[in-house]
Design a protein that fits this description.
heterodimer, A: Alpha-Beta Plaits, four-stranded antiparallel β-sheet, about 40% strand, elongated, disordered C terminus, B: about 650 residues, alpha/beta, Rossmann fold, 3 domains, six-stranded parallel β-sheet, about 15% strand, disordered N terminus
Amino acid sequence: MRHVLSALVMNQPGVLAHISGMLASRAYNIDSLAVGPTENEKFSRMTFVVKGDDHVLDQVRKQLEKIVTVVRVVDYIQEEHVERDLMLIKVETKTRLERSELKELVDIFRGSIVDVSAGHVMIEMSGQERKIEAFIEAVRPFGILEMARTGRIALSRSNSMSSAIEVGDPTHSSDNVDQAV
Amino acid sequence: MTATISGNCCLIFLVVGIGFRYTYYSVVIREIAPHHHIFTRKSAEGIVVSTVAEPKTEKSALTGAEILVEALIHQGAQSVFAYPGGASMPLHQALRKHRDQIRTILPRHEQGGGFAAQGVSRTSDEVGICMATSGPGATNLVTAIADAKMDSVPMLAITGQVPQKVIGTDAFQETPIVEIARAVTKHYYMITAEDPDDEASVQEALRSIPRIVKEAYFVAKTGRPGPVLIDFPKNIQLSKADGEIDFDPPMYLPGYHPERRQVAPEQINQVIAAIRRSKRPVLYVGGGCINSDAAAELTAFAKKANIPVTMTCMGLGSFPGDDPQSLHMLGMHGTVYSNFAVNEADLLLAFGVRFDDRVTGKLEEFAKHGKIIHVDIDPSEMNKNKEAHFPIVADLKLFLEHLNREFTDQDVPQTDDWWKQINEWKEKYPLKYADAGDLILPQYAIDELWRQTIERDPYICVGVGQHQMFAAQFYKFRKPKHWLSSSGLGTMGFGLPTAMGVQAAHPDSLVVDIDGDGSILMNIQELATLNCEKLPVKILLLNNQHLGMVVQWEDRFMDGRRAHTYLGPVDHPEALGEGSGGHYEETYPNFVQMAESFGIKSKQVRSKAEFPAALKEMLDSDSPYLLDVICPYQEHVLPMIPAGGTARDIITE
């Protein structure tokens, strides 16, 4: 079963190394991992795509939560959420005709051409993984020169979580942590 | 900025410079200023470091190193085991300045200091502290840190680090200790200025020190305890604060929630109902019971409910070992009756345990006839190895207090038949050892130690191997926190330095290190510390001239072929297992001479008839003492369940 985990982590050196080291040392299989800042400069968000049964996922989540710099982990399998991938791809265009055919495809997939050179164009494409895969297949006959893809990022449709967290001194905090999260 | 990887390949390459404000390796290399000379840790004597020459008495002129030491004192630190070197010299200067408030003990190897710190933590409410310089000093601490992680021991490890500006340049005695130790610490800090050239940034780093120390203590002690590392670059140690330092700042740990969890009343009711209905209940108790300070509550509950108690190696002392209700240790070298009882149990009360492979053997077969109630403070232990029917994440002490309040006489299960069965097993398969004439069997030596010392409630430390298991079997502990064993990591050389730490924390108590001739050599240098720091540890050395536990496995599973398990010279026939079966007139090494050269009293004893008096002489001594006891190497630790086996596979002969 494919799970998308979203972890809110403290924006500190070494956090990513800690998390990737833990996942590697416990032999968990990660399909993709994306990291970036959030609206709160104190936190970063990591999005993981993990494949495994419920037992594996339960352990991954608990081991992540055990890391002191990991603030909260959510498994989006139980939640309404939006997922996106981003891709940059360089496609060969030998003729004018090819270029306009490609332009049409890009429009259909709602991507955009971000760079044009003699003999090839660079296309930016974002969307769900399936769409990206479909686009790659569609342009493959033209000749793919190079491509780069990000990992999955995802956000829940429900109310935001990172800005809500401002736990200070843990000895002074009275509210109990939601065990379900 | 976003970075990604696909697949499970090479996660490690992502460490550098991704999305974070700064990383360890993004340091710009500049010309190294002359005051950044780094001295070798062992030849630093006599070299005057000009930057720390002038004495600082003003509060407002504290150095980073002084702030750290004062912050430790503020947290209640009483002792620190610290080995100096180039990158930690300012810390030692600060420790010297505060020597009337905090005792600094100089171990003879950083690993010894690390285990000594564990000795403090494992026997008191204090957090043991060890300190080392950068590079080799820091890496020498790693084994002790990993050991503390495996056994959930709170500990603070402080390492000097090369100045920030040379971090990442492969500077002399530089190791990225935070990177190395990350997987074996509970948490870690590096005290750095965001920009070491910017005075405001350096001041911010100095002001952060008391918060970091406070957080480190808090994280080490609370929840499931563990070791915390603070790596401290020398430039910050030497920088001077330009204002007042707040030694009790608020902590900032948004991702850490160790609140002591109460249990829902419905869960307590379910547990009580399960106990009431059970016919063959067993309490399986581990180190969590000791860490949560719940031995009294556990004992009260076990007594009230009349349920047999078996303990893991870490749990020994949770319930009195000389009480008839105790089934003693379970697992690979546990008693037959405890393993049979767990195997037949219809209800297993697993309190503060983690279903370690040395306990369970084959997981699918372990306690397969019963329901399991698993109570532990660490959520990640729930269903990790063994699925529990009632997983309860709670502080065991709070759970047991609650349980004891609600548990009535009507809830006591009907266990008459169960006890009859257990007592039959106890009678049929007692822990026993042979009569070997005038030879001193290790089991006998420990039994005799127990007889002579139990009324004195000694602290018993052990190394790793046969002597460790014999001690776990034959020393019947009455109290928690009096048995110190490297149970999870199984580190040889644990006993002597740990005993040294215990003695420092409990100067008036009897501290005994039961050790093997293999284990003790791994940290033998600490004999010097015992002598020089006046720590009267008693060492009962069970010397069989072999690595006994490996020999036992060779005998059982490899047709007795000796492969590097004889500890004497290689030209002895016994090096290949072709010896006569006895020992040479002169055993190797000469432990008595060695101890004496360190200034420690010592005696060798080979005859059982002499043993009780020799032991008494050691125990009555008020100085450190090593008793070298020559034991036969043919003894096996029994019972034994081979790795991955079940209670049915138990070997008793």
